[in-house]
Amino acid sequence: MAGMKLIGIAGTNGSGKDTVGHMLAEKHGFLFISVSDLLRAECRRRGLPVEREHLRAISAEWRREGGLGVLIDKAMEAYERRAAHYAGMAVASVRNPGENERVHELGGSMVWVDADPRVRYDRIQSANRGRGTEDTKTYEQFLAEEEAEMHPSGDAATLNMSAVKDLCDRTILNEGTEANLEVQITKLVT
Q1: Which end of the chain has fewer CB atoms within 10 angstroms, the N or the C?
Q2: Half-sphere exposure of residue 10: CA atoms within 13 angstroms, side-chain side
Q3: Which residues contact 2 (CB under 8 A, 6 or more apart)?
């Protein structure tokens, strides 16, 4: 962990969290780990359809079993196996305040990525993200899911994006060009 740079990435659906992670990987030498991809793989392993409801349930289950920062710890395990090859690690998508706290405990920083809801919805609908029916919904369903994820709906292990946002160190607005986004990302690593 000594000397390793850690950036946790949080934000609204379709804001560009994975894009930020991929840019950190491609242009700044970071290992990018998507905890959402870890959850999707677990859905498939369990024979469940990859839908947001199942991703939320599995993430809460893992937090109850392994602590609120367990998803960050799983990402760290993957990083530690390959650390010599990277300048640091970027991990998305942080969705519980315990994950923010774990990133900070490890000496990392948190960034919140956001954009206008209609821009985000249109991005999701136009992107061929290989996620099956996970992202196939109306704009109203998209907004309702986001509202459900912004506020806790159970115990401390459930999603609470509002608290995550409040604990972030920086914000990136991803509504412009890729070049504009790169300028903002470069500020994260300097």
Answers
A1: C
A2: 31
A3: none
CA distance 95 to 13: 11
d(CA 79, CA 87): 11
**Domain 5-189, CATH number (from 3.10.310.30, 3.30.1050.10, 3.40.50.300, 3.40.109.10):** 3.40.50.300
107 phi, psi to nearest 5 deg:
85, 10
What are the boundaries of each domain within the chain? 5-189
Give tens-digit pLDDT for 81-119: 888 899 999 999 999 999 999 999 999 999 999 999 999
Which phi and psi angles does 127 have, rounded to 5°? -80, 135
- Alpha carbon of 93 to those of 45, 47, 99: distances in Å? 20, 22, 10
Contact 175, 115 (CB under 8 A): yes
Q: Does the pTM of the predicted model rise above 0.85?
A: yes
Minimal CA–CA distance to 163: which of 94, 108, 106? 94
Distance CA 46, CA 23 (A): 31
CA distance 106 to 129: 31
First to last CA, the chain: 19
- Residue with tokens 């760290």, as numbered in its chain: 76
